[in-house]
């Protein structure tokens, strides 16, 4: 009888704790929230920390606005100072690694602060529910170290993938490799100048995944892109590869993921950790402004809007 009674008491206590944990509470600033899971033994996130999380956004009608569980990678954000009372950032500062919670943020405050109109499906006076599951909390030093370790590991993976691709396509006698891990083929040598950091170039390009799927190309649009090399405006593999060519050259760049979009991928079009193929036609090289990259008055790249062009 004692054990039966004790068992019931423990069950009731567990239910009460669960109910208390999931009840809606309100901070002094007016932020409404529910704590689903909380670990009291780990440090809370601080301003400047990088938080890795899954996030689901819902409107007042419980319609999903965004769910990172359905995206290739979790969300990573640097925790900022709360921009207004009752903001999402205020809620995040309550959480640590492994915690889960829902924060109800005023849609009016959120979008007026961003100077944007309320989007379709979000009504005036309503709240947006941010349901968060924190995967990790790292300070900047920890995050940088972890990313460096991941890149080092991925370099070996990419090298094998590229080696297999080169062998499968009988490219062994054509491909050259740089110290960074970039592989490239000069299909048609150029006779013009070779771009240097700070120079402006005009190129046509076609970007493909290793399976041959084209994710972006300037050729069908009939609009080559212009950009300045050596200033970090484009992904590192492009930057290095273009500066290995001469005006008038046509080449193929085989870019490891660590010199492309890395573990994040890009826009749902380029999966995480993807080795990319770019066919490049270097149409024009124009000497950059005096003083080199970043010199005052240096022209900004125009039209570099494709998936392969920006960082």
UniProtKB/TrEMBL annotation:
Q: PROSITE patterns from the entry?
A: FKBP_PPIASE, PROKAR_LIPOPROTEIN
Please give the residue ranges the record annotates as the region Disordered. 290-311
Q: Any idea where the PPIase FKBP-type domain is? A: 48-138, 198-286
| Gene3D superfamilies, sorted | 3.10.50.40
The EC code for this enzyme is 5.2.1.8
**UniProtKB keywords:** Isomerase, Rotamase
PANTHER family according to UniProt: 39 KDA FK506-BINDING NUCLEAR PROTEIN, FKBP-TYPE PEPTIDYL-PROLYL CIS-TRANS ISOMERASE FKPA
Q: What is this protein called?
A: Peptidyl-prolyl cis-trans isomerase
Which organism is the protein's source? Nibrella viscosa
């Amino acid at each position: 009888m004692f054990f039966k009674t004790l068992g019931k008491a423990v069950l009731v206590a567990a239910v009460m704790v669960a109910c208390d944990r999931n009840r809606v509470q309100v901070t002094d600033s007016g932020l409404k929230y529910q704590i689903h899971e909380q670990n009291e033994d780990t440090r809370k996130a601080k301003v400047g920390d990088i938080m890795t999380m899954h996030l689901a956004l819902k409107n007042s009608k419980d319609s999903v606005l965004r769910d990172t569980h359905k995206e290739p990678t979790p969300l990573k954000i640097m925790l900022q100072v709360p921009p207004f009372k009752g903001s999402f950032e205020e809620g995040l500062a309550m959480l640590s690694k492994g915690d889960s919670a829902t924060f109800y943020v005023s849609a009016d405050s959120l979008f007026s602060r961003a100077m944007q109109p309320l989007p379709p499906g979000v009504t005036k006076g309503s709240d947006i529910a941010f349901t968060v599951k924190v995967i990790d909390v790292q300070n900047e030093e920890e995050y940088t170290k972890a990313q460096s370790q991941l890149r080092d590991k991925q370099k070996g993976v990419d090298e094998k993938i590229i080696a297999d691709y080169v062998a499968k396509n009988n490219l062994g006698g054509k491909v050259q490799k740089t110290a960074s891990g970039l592989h490239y083929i000069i299909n048609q040598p150029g006779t013009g100048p070779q771009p240097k950091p700070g120079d402006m170039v005009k190129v046509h390009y076609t970007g493909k995944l290793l399976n041959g799927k084209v994710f972006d190309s300037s050729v069908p649009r009939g609009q080559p892109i212009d950009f300045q090399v050596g200033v970090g405006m484009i992904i590192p593999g492009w930057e290095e590869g273009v500066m290995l060519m001469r005006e008038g050259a046509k080449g193929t760049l085989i870019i490891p993921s660590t010199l492309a979009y890395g573990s994040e991928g890009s826009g749902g079009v380029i999966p995480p950790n993807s080795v990319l193929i770019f066919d490049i036609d270097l149409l024009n090289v124009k000497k950059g402004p005096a003083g080199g990259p970043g010199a005052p008055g240096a022209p900004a790249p125009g039209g570099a809007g494709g998936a392969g062009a920006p960082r």
